[in-house]
Amino acid sequence: MSSAKMASKIARSGERRRLRNSSIKTRMKTALGGAEKLIEGGEAKAAQEEVVTAISNIDRAVSKEIIHRNRGARLKSRLARRLNQATPEKKGE
């Protein structure tokens, strides 16, 4: 590590960001896993509510620039596709 004062300040701020980002990423990944588990379990109503929560967490991570916006869009798209395949809509209603 450099002996410059600024380098140590940057390292400290980087550590603070890492800790903040990891908590948001963990929350996002937990919500994704919960939604996928409910989708696979066939619980349509609960899965739909969990998908909304997961999408909200993904959007929060994207807005704080913790994950790239394209990754956020990809995660949301895949999650919505899984939900739609698992719960086919009834035609005529």
Can you walk me through this structure?
Helices cover 81% and strands 0% of the residues. With 93 residues, it is mainly α. The protein has a single domain (8-85), classed as Methane Monooxygenase Hydroxylase, Chain G, domain 1 (Up-down Bundle). Helix 1 (5-41) runs parallel beside helix 3 and helix 2 runs antiparallel to helix 3. The chain has helices spanning 5-41, 44-63, 69-86. The N and C termini lie far apart (65 Å). The mean pLDDT is 91.
Order of helices and strands: HHH
Task: Tell me the domain tally.
Answer: 1
Tell me the CATH superfamily: Ribosomal protein S20
CATH topology: Methane Monooxygenase Hydroxylase, Chain G, domain 1
What CATH architecture do you see? Up-down Bundle
How large is the share of residues in beta strands? under 5%
Oligomer: single chain
Total number of helices: 3
Characterize the largest beta sheet: strand count, sense, and whether it forms a barrel: none
SS-derived structural category: mainly alpha
**How many DSSP E strands?**
0
Q: Averaged pLDDT, please?
A: 91
Helical content stands at over 70%
Unreliable runs? none
Approximate shape: elongated
* Spatial separation of the terminal alpha carbons: 65 Å
CATH top level label: Mainly Alpha
* Radius of gyration over C-alpha positions, nearest whole angstrom: 18 Å
